[in-house]
Specification:
six-stranded mixed beta sheet, alpha/beta, two-stranded antiparallel ribbon, 2 domains, Rossmann fold
């Protein structure tokens, strides 16, 4: 039998180690599912991702919508998640800041749990930073996986902060429309507190919260979305129908092309090197 210091033994050890190393490299490359070229497939309905930016500022407690702006908005959101049953949703409550509490998911259980918690108590930061909300919504979309992406902004539009025009341009460039569900009325309403009193200004007079329709309409128009007034009958249903219509039907455009998975180009050679490694270990080599 070969001695460990012989040339044959050293050669065998080198080939065995080399085979194992090459196997590992090829296996990792195969697991990465590399793609190259394109192949035609028949068109089919694209998936839908909906990022919901939900205003939880104190003005949403106003009662110009019955029973309140907040309650009506929550009801509309639940209607949306039920009707768009095959869509994925993310949820971003916002006031003076914005937090992604539900990443993009199909899990309706966790989504419903957070919808139940929507309200001013979720944040202590005052204000209505819509720029931060839309930024978080944009970032909640996974990579470019071919799914249709839309943002639903639910707010009364009062005292909006941030560079709304800038973020709307960025979304328009990425082809992500904003669908606005405006909660409130232009006549407005006082804002009740838990102790039965109302929010007052520095002079001690009750604050009247009014919906800002102009900025909200401009935001939806600039991104190719649509504006819906929650005070009007059927507003939520119209919003859902518009979102559903935004889905891309590739069949109407003929075939589409997808990248071809090339993992086999690495998997089969990896198996060959693994076999060579095993043979080098198992089969005894003898000197002549």
């Amino acid at each position: 039998v070969m001695g460990k210091n012989s040339i044959e033994w050293q050669l065998r050890t080198f080939l065995r180690d080399l085979s194992l190393t090459v196997f590992y490299i090829l296996a990792v490359l195969a697991a990465a599912e590399p793609r190259g070229g394109r192949e035609p497939v028949s068109g089919e309905r694209s998936g839908l991702d909906v990022a919901v930016a939900f205003d939880v500022s104190r003005s949403m407690l106003a009662e110009d919508l019955i029973p309140s702006r907040l309650d009506r908005s929550v009801t509309a959101l639940r209607q949306m998640t039920r009707t768009l049953g095959d869509a994925r949703f993310s949820l971003i409550p916002f006031k003076g800041d914005a937090v992604l509490v539900v990443p993009m998911t199909e899990d309706r259980v966790i989504l419903d749990l957070w919808i139940d918690r929507l309200g001013p108590g979720l944040s202590t930061v005052t204000g209505t930073d819509v720029e931060a909300a839309l930024g978080r919504a944009k970032d909640s979309f996974p990579g470019d996986d071919g799914r249709n992406k839309v943002i639903v902004l639910i707010t009364d539009g009062e005292a909006l902060k941030g560079h709304v025009e800038r973020v709307s341009r960025e979304l328009a460039e990425k082809g992500i429309p904003i669908y606005v569900l405006a909660a409130g009325t232009e006549e407005g309403s006082t804002i009740p507190l838990s102790d039965g009193s109302y929010v007052k200004d520095s002079a001690g007079r009750p604050v009247v919260s009014r919906m800002n329709t102009t900025s909200l309409k401009r935001l939806s128009e600039n991104t190719g979305g649509s504006y819906h007034d929650l005070s009007r009958p059927g507003a939520a249903a119209d919003l859902i129908a518009n979102i559903d219509d935004s889905r891309v039907f590739s069949e109407s455009r003929g075939i589409r092309f997808i990248g071809v998975n090339r993992f086999r180009l690495f998997l089969f050679p990896a198996l060959i090197f693994l076999l060579f490694f095993l043979l080098a270990r198992i089969i005894p080599w003898r000197q002549r």
